[in-house]
Amino acid sequence: MAGPWVEKYRPQKLEDIVGQQHIVKRLEKYVTQSSMPNLMFTGPAGVGKTTTSLALVKSILGDNWRANFLELNASDARGIDTVRTNIKEFCRLKPVGSPLRIVFLDEVDNMTKDAQHALRREMEMYSKTASFILSCNYSSKIIDPIQSRCAIFRFAPIKGQDILKRLEFVTESEGFEYDETAIQSIVYFAEGDMRKAINILQASASMGEKITDENIYDVISKAKPQDVSSMVSKALSGDFMGARELLREVMVLQGISGEDMVNQIYQDVTKRIMGEKMADDIYMDIIEKIAQADFRIREGANPRIQLEALLAQFL
Ligand SMILES: Nc1ncnc2c1ncn2[C@@H]1O[C@H](COP(=O)(O)OP(=O)(O)OP(=O)(O)O)[C@@H](O)[C@H]1O
Ligand SMILES: [Mg+2]
């Protein structure tokens, strides 16, 4: 098992990128035209912004891509001045053996407003020799003058089904067996983030020959939804001691944190109201109690005591 799977299974070509079809289709036009405007990729973590940039750069720049490509991180530890010096030095040169030069700048939303204004001037100054690809999680943090100079591409969280297929592909390529439900659990916890999904998968695979539900819950340190559900059911039906025992098991033996427990209880209760398995007025009462426990735990109260008190109020 050499190296991280997220790198090993990073798609190299635009056509191999999972989901994001509408974006890939628009980008393929730039490849045909051998030119591109400044681009801005925005969206949540782990959905393919960097991957897509690299694939696009390789397609447009061809074999000489390394010589005509500069990758920088805007939150570089050495400071924004280093970033700008690098941009200037790179942009002074003409493209060699490629139609243009490309600067890829990651985490632009971490730049201060002043630094963004400076970046905007550089984009303007070098517009003849270089195109920029800017990547960020929140486009709202980017100043308007930069936004209006870029074609904006909004990356969406990856659909559960697409993540599922990808995880099965990776698992089979690596020669692991798996429980279907285990893969489904990963998809559930990854919340559209492919990087997170593949990382959970690899961590679970390192625990044995087969990828099972058990391994996954160990890796992500979340309680099993069934355990939480039966704990809530017990509390609601008046079996406080039963609920308390389950709580102890999950928190002490599995080491789940108080914050995660409150969240998972909230998710379970929400599922009940969505499935019309709980009356509206009971839900309103309960949600108030959950909110109180959540607040107190965050403020530093003892999570075991808060959670026991919460379950007691469910009775
Ligand atoms: N659309 C996708 N198709 C296939 N694999 C993907 C996709 N998106 C992400 N991955 C996997 O997740 C890893 C990380 O993706 P990437 O670096 O592109 O995320 P990102 O959107 O740039 O995230 P961040 O906002 O954290 O920079 C990739 O190496 C790849 O293995
Ligand atoms: Mg990235």
Automatic annotation (TrEMBL):
The keyword Iron-sulfur does not apply. Keywords: ATP-binding, DNA replication, Nucleotide-binding, Nucleotidyltransferase, Transferase. Gene3D superfamilies: 1.10.8.60, 1.20.272.10, P-loop containing nucleotide triphosphate hydrolases. Pfam families: AAA, Rep_fac_C. InterPro entries: AAA+_ATPase (IPR003593), ATPase_AAA_core (IPR003959), DNA_pol3_clamp-load_cplx_C (IPR008921), DNA_Rep/Repair_Clamp_Loader (IPR050238), P-loop_NTPase (IPR027417), Rep_factor-C_ssu_arc (IPR023748), Rep_factorC_C (IPR013748), RFC_lid (IPR047854). GO terms for molecular function: ATP binding; ATP hydrolysis activity; DNA binding; DNA clamp loader activity; nucleotidyltransferase activity. ATP binds at G43, P44, A45, G46, V47, G48, K49, T50. Residues 35-159 form the AAA+ ATPase domain. SUPFAM superfamilies: P-loop containing nucleoside triphosphate hydrolases, post-AAA+ oligomerization domain-like. NCBIfam families: PRK00440.1. Part of the RFC clamp loader complex which loads the PCNA sliding clamp onto DNA. Heteromultimer composed of small subunits (RfcS) and large subunits (RfcL). Belongs to the activator 1 small subunits family. RfcS subfamily. This is Replication factor C small subunit. It comes from Methanobrevibacter curvatus. The lineage of its organism: Archaea, Methanobacteriati, Methanobacteriota, Methanomada group, Methanobacteria. The gene is dnaX_2.
